[in-house]
Every structure is written in C-alpha cells, then in structure tokens.
Specification:
about 500 residues
Length: about 500
C-alpha cells in the first residue's frame, strides 16, 4: 500500500470536499442551455453570439486538460485545485455581473480555465489517497457526481432562470465555491509532489492541436463544413489539429527528457480500453439530451424546466446505484459491471428512439429513462476505477488529464454529431429543419426550442408534429450506435492487478 494512502486519516472526507467543486464545474457545462433565450433578450445578442457562451467555456475547459493534469503532478493536486477553484468562483461572479455578451464570453473562457485546473486533480487525488481495494467505491462516488451533474444542470438552470433570472445560474457558484474552498483547505491532504520538468514544446503542440480540433468540430455544423475565417475551411482546421496532435505524439515518443503525456500509460490495456469507452460515454451523455429536450418542448409544449425534469428519474436512480456499484467494483469483474452500464445505455437510447411520437405519453418514456439511470449507475465507477488502478502513482495527474480530455472531446463530438443527425432526420421526415436546429449546432437547437414550444402550444399541425418527433427519436440512434463501441471495448478489460505500482 502507498505511503500516501497510509498518511491520510479519512480519505472519504477529502473526496466529499473535492466532489462539491467537481459537481459545480460539470453543472456549468450544461446549465446555460436553458438560459439562452433569456440571455439573448437581456443582453440584446443574437443566437450565434450566445452559443459561444457555452462553446467558449467548453473550449477553454477541454484544451488545457492534458497540461493541468501534469501541473498537479508537478506542484501538487491540492494547490492546483485550489487555484482553479478561486479562478472559477471569481469568474462566475464576473459572468453574472456582465452587461454585454462579449464580456460574458470572455468571462466564460476564464471560468473554463479554472474548471480545467480543477478536474484532473479530483481523479488524481482519489487515485493517490485510496488504496486499490477501496478505490472502486470512491470512483463510484466520483462517477455518480459526474453522471448526475450533467443531468442536474438543465433542471437547476430552468429553476434558477424561472425564479430569479439568468444571472443566478452563475451567482449560485459563488457561495458554493466559497464552501468548496474551505472544505478543500481543511479536508484535502497535501500530497507529495514529483520533480517533473515541464515539456514546453509538448504543451504548445498539444494546446494547438486540441484547440484546432475542438474548435473545428464545434463550428462545423454552423458553417456547413465550409469556410470559417476567410478561405480557411472546417476540414482544414480539423486536419491541422490532427497534424498537431500527431506531431505531439511523435514528440512524446522521441523526446529524451520528461514528456507531458507518458505514452507508457497506453501500454496498460485497461487504461487504453477505458479511454475508448469513456469517449463514447461523453458522446452519448451529451448527445442524448438535445433530441429529448426538443421533443418535449416543441411537440409536447413543455417549458424548459418541465422538460428538464424528464431527466429526474434517471438522475435519482443513477445516484442510488452508483455507490453500490462502486463497492462491487473493488471485488467484482469490471468487464461485467461496465458491460451492464454501456449495454443498458445503448438499449435505452434505441428504445427511446423507437417510441418518440407526437402522442407518446410520459408513462411510455419512463421505463427507458429508468434504464438510462441503470446505465449511468453502472458506467462511471467501473470504467474510471479500471482506467487508473494499474497506473504508477507519479503518473496519476497525467493519466487523469488524458482520461478527462477524451471524455470532454467525446462530449464535443456528441454535440456536433447530434446537430447534424437532427438536421438530417428533420429533412427526411418533414422536408426541412424548419429552423429548429439552428445553424450553430446542437446548442442552437436547445436555444430555439422556446419558439418551438410556442408553436406546439398554438397547435402544431399533426403531420409536422409527428415527423418532428420521429426525427428526434431517430437521431438518438446515432449515440446509441456509437456507445456499442464502448461496450465492446470494456468486454476486453483485464482484471486489475492486485496493487498499484509506486
């Protein structure tokens, strides 16, 4: 057992402190979607500008993750986490006080950088303070937070916007951030740092590659894969990102000094398979919400809060199952547990996609939503625990950075892909997208759904309503199919080694 795990009296208290901050930053990934219309009205902004309120946050969140994970190894995960938490909390206050959409986007960039500093440290601390035979339960808690936060965001956002105004989706972070800071200072231990030299050339290559890749994917649907800036097209930008990332991998391979991402991480079969699986999870979790929300608001005429509450059964069941599954991970077969989660995820999405119609009742969608809750409960802990269990402790930050990066890249891919899928299926079912899925991507679809709800309540023609519902359902088959790749990956998990190498 590691000396670090022996030095921590009660690691569960540290975990609770970290989970509060982790929950807050993940909620902010989705909470803005239900406030888009109010932000547009308040700041006098168009839909393309407001989409960047979310896109800028995700971009600033994803790009630095490889770097901030390594910073935790170098300067200590507690120190980097606290710095990120301060940045995130102060920028949240700035977001709520802004009076122009341009300044709001800038504040969201700073907020994303703060979130990127925090995220890898939560997983790295768990890896370092929990012994291997107790880490599954801890990862279960971490996974429950990750799964529930993405579902709670739209619900909490709808309640806050309806009750107090859009500013409060950011103001709420200030008291939570202060409490999280105090808890982290008090409960999270200072862990041993490792004298890593920083690979600055690797930093530049990875940052450029991630920025171009994520930015290109985010903007692809909005410009129909055409020019982004002057003659520079989306494929050129994405291709440039891929070239930079290939260069980054080659540099990590030939660099004789210390590298940013040790390629030896991928010699661990379980880490590589878990990274593949988590990419599909990030894709599926992000992609599934948009068609379901648009169906509820546009066809059924639900308000944003009412439609977000459809996720409540899934979130509740997921929260109840995750700690139980986490305890099973410590002694069970991870391929079985993760396979149940990812298999349930794909089946539930196919199920939902096949039943959405203009007259589908709430009771008809509850069973597949509950199955999604089972999926969330069984996915996160087995995949996360298996990914990190065999890694050397001095690579905990680097491994966490890679793992969280692929999850967020999967989310960006899911957001872009579902926009294309919805547009395509709308054209096939009713002849055009009717403007519901905006040119800026999936978030635009979420933002314009307020108009759709109005159309529904005014009496959407039966043929259009039915075609729209079928289009939303069929688009869910895209994430359902991709999750199968993750399902196959986890079936090849090996049983983790009995102890972590120091």
């Amino acid at each position: 057992m590691s000396t670090e795990t022996n030095a921590v009296g009660n690691p569960w208290r540290a975990l609770w402190a970290l989970c509060l901050g982790f929950f807050m930053i993940l909620v902010d990934s989705t909470i803005v979607s239900v406030a888009i219309r109010d932000i547009m009205d308040s700041l006098g902004a168009d839909i393309n500008s407001v989409i960047w309120v979310t896109s800028a946050y995700l971009l600033a969140y994803v790009v630095p993750l490889l770097i901030t994970g390594r910073l935790g190894d170098r300067f200590g995960p507690k120190r980097v986490y606290l710095v990120g938490l301060v940045i995130f909390t102060l920028s949240s206050l700035w977001c709520g006080l802004t009076t122009s959409v341009g300044v709001l986007i800038l504040a969201r960039v700073v907020q994303g950088i703060g979130a990127a500093s925090m995220t890898p440290q939560t997983m790295a601390v768990i890896t370092r303070i929990f012994p291997p035979d107790r880490r599954g339960a801890a990862m279960g808690m971490w996974g429950a937070v990750a799964g529930i936060a993405t579902l709670v965001g739209p619900i909490l956002g709808g309640v806050l916007v309806d009750a107090f105004g859009w500013e409060w989706i950011f103001f709420i972070n200030v008291p939570v951030g202060i409490i999280a800071f105090i808890m982290a200072v008090w409960l999270v231990p200072r862990l041993q740092t490792h004298p890593h030299r920083f690979d600055w050339f690797g930093v530049v290559l990875s940052a450029c590659g991630m920025f171009l890749l994520v930015y290109g994917i985010q903007q692809a649907h909005g410009v129909d894969w055409g020019p982004l800036i002057g003659p520079v097209t989306v494929p050129f930008v994405i291709g440039g990102g891929v070239v930079f990332l290939i260069g980054f991998v080659l540099w990590q391979k030939v660099n004789t000094s210390e590298v940013l991402v040790p390629l030896s991480l991928f010699k661990d079969r379980n880490f590589t398979l878990a990274a593949i699986a988590m990419t599909t999870v990030g894709f599926g979790i992000t992609a599934m919400a948009f068609p379901l929300m648009l169906w509820a608001q546009t066809v059924l005429g639900y308000t944003p809060t009412q439609s977000a509450l459809l996720m409540a059964p899934m979130a509740i069941l997921s929260g109840l199952l995750a700690p139980f599954v986490g305890r099973l991970v410590d002694h069970g077969n991870p391929r079985v547990l993760a396979g149940i989660g990812l298999g349930s995820f794909s089946i539930a999405l196919f199920w939902l996609g096949s039943i959405l119609d203009a007259h589908t009742s709430l009771w008809a969608i509850i069973p597949p939503l509950l199955l999604l809750g089972v999926a969330n409960g069984f996915m996160w802990a087995p995949i996360s625990s298996t990914a990190t269990r065999n890694l050397p402790l001095h690579h905990a930050g680097a491994g966490s950075g890679v793992y969280n990066t692929v999850r967020q890249v999967g989310a960006v891919l899911g957001s872009a892909a579902i926009a294309v899928a919805m547009e395509s299926r709308l054209a096939a079912n009713i002849g055009s997208s009717t403007g519901t899925v905006g040119g800026a991507g999936a978030e635009a679809g979420a933002g314009s759904s307020a108009d759709g709800a109005g159309a529904a309540s005014a009496g959407m023609p039966e043929a259009i309503a039915s075609g729209f519902a079928h289009a939303m359902g069929q688009s869910l088959w895209v994430p359902a199919a991709l999750v199968i790749i993750g399902f196959v990956a986890v079936l090849f998990f090996e049983r983790p080694k009995s102890r972590v190498r120091g």
